[in-house]
Each structure stands twice: as structure tokens, then as C-alpha cells.
Amino acid sequence: MTVTTPDFPHDVAAVHEATEQLLVSVSKLDDAAVGEPSLLPGWTRGHVLAHLARNADALVNLLTWARTDVPTPMYASAEARNADIERDADRPLAAHLEDLRESAARFAAAADALPRARRAFEVEMRNGVVERADRLPLRRLAEVELHHVDLGVGHTLDQLSPGFVDSELAFLATVKFAGHAGLPALELRTEDGRSWRTGAATTGAGTGDAPVVVTGSARDLVGWLTGRGDGAGLDSHGSVLPVVPPL
To answer: How many helices (H) and strands (E) does the chain have?
Structure first.
């Protein structure tokens, strides 16, 4: 099993680079395009952009919590989170761009202010998920990279950075879907020889159950596991490719 160890300064820099690429793509849109459907059902591009800005601020809250030891939730409530996205979705392109830049700067400043000694501090994300502060940049990187794809502006899975693909695949296998009852026991294998066990807990000796083996590129595995790809490039070795629960 391969596990990605966070490299906080590197991961913060990767967030900055991915955000700059996102801003280049978004700056080529116009107000009409912002209001068009994204690749996420029920969301326009404006919804995606509003979510990205508010997610940056939500992660600032968690970085502040880690720095100060004062509990600061990501969002006031699920209802407030959704209302903020709806409120901001229909803004003109210029407002979205300004918000994305300013919220990204706040995230970078909060990351820079977090002392090394506080990076192992644990905070609570949405839905009760507990995360270490030093993994929050990787969480932000996933938001920026995957939602860049969701905008439907020509940024595809093939353009995801290799470093992100590797870290996200390890996260999905070892954290997100580890022990997940909505997936059968899986053994994920990449073409370069790496492998992970994930999904429902593998059953004990003598039960006769074996994990479904799924082989392919790291990029295709990430696309399938995140709902951004149909798994057409994967080999499930005679088994039906399982349906992955929504993230």
C-alpha cells in the first residue's frame, strides 16, 4: 500500500500553481458562460466558482483553528454553505475572478501563518471528518484540480498534475473509501506496479471472498473514483466494474 506523506510547503505551492491555472481558464470566459451549466448536475459554472471561493475561506477557518486552538467550523451550517453558493453563483465574471483571487490569498496567508509545531493538530471538517492541519493544502488542491475539470472549459483529467494524481489516488484508497460499505472490497493496481486495498473491509480467511481487482493508470483510477471518468480505460479482470458512491 502506498501512502502519501504531506509536504506542507510543497503542497501549499501546488495549490498556488493550480489556482493560477484555474484563473487563466476562468478569465477566458464571459458573463454568459458563467451562467451556463457545468459538468456537475444542477450547478452552473457560477456555482462551481462560488463554491471554490467559499471553500478557500472554509479552509482558512480550519487553519485558524489549528493555529489558535479555538474551534472554528468550516461553515456556520450546511444551510449557510449552500445559501452562500446560491447567493454568489449569478455574479458577473469580474466579481468571481476577484473573489477567487482574494480568497486564494487568504488561504495562502493562513497556511503561511501556521507554525510547524501546529501542523499535526487535528481539526473537524464537514460531516464530522477529522483531518490533520498539514493535509489541508492537499484537500484544497483536490477542490481546485477537480472543480477545474467540472467547469467544462477544456481542462480534462489528462491535464491534472501527476503529483496531484498520485496524492489523490492514495487519499481515495487509504482514507476516503477505506472500509466504505458502499464499495466492495477492492484491490487497485496501477500500471507501474503500485497497489492499494480499499472499499469494504476484506473478509477473513476461509470466507471465500476476494477483492475485485481493478487495474489501470493512476489518472484513470482517480477519474473513476471521483466520478470524473467512466472507467473505460480500466481492467476489472472479468468482474463488473463497481459503481462508486458520490464523494
So the answer is: 8, 5
